[in-house]
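Request: Mind sharing a record?
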Amino acid sequence: MQHGRSNELIAYWEQLRGTRAAPERSEIAPAAIPRQLADIFILQASQDTEAKFRLAGTRICSIHGRELKDSAFELLWQARDRRSISRLLANSITRKSPVAINAEGISARQRTALFEFILLPLANEVHEQFLIGMIVALGQPFWLESDSIVESRIRSITTLDTSRSQYAGGSRSSPSPKGAIHTIIGQNTDRLQLLDGGKSSLPLKTRAKPLPPH
């Protein structure tokens, strides 16, 4: 993770989940993560509907120049990336794997800025699925929040298998690098590939095999 607030949210998610695959949505306490609230969102989806914002922090809405509640997460992305984002969300929910997306945001005036998106799955409910996430700018362009981001482009994606993390003295140690899984999306393709931890990353323009259907 490249941003300190991202690390803090992931650590909080890890603490809540304990030895489970993911924490419950009801366990999220805003008072425990006050520094992150403006950058946090929650997505809600079902088997028959796309993931939509259940809520979005004030800074996220300001950066995009609009209220995001009830809008589809996929619509933040350029058209060629939306299928990949949809499949990535489904994969994260199914595998209960946290995901980091490094993205380039393009503004209404064609300026660009780099962002980190964090997706942390929550435990499935009866008919709904949820993720808590964060969007943070990597750097603070002077124009951010005055020149709205109108679409984002995927630069790279990393998923992390935290199943090997262990509690010691009540706190979870950092996940082993050997548990990492890198998901590479080339800039010229909407296909995904999962690589077992320990293998080197592929160049962004590498064409990869598609994920099997869920």
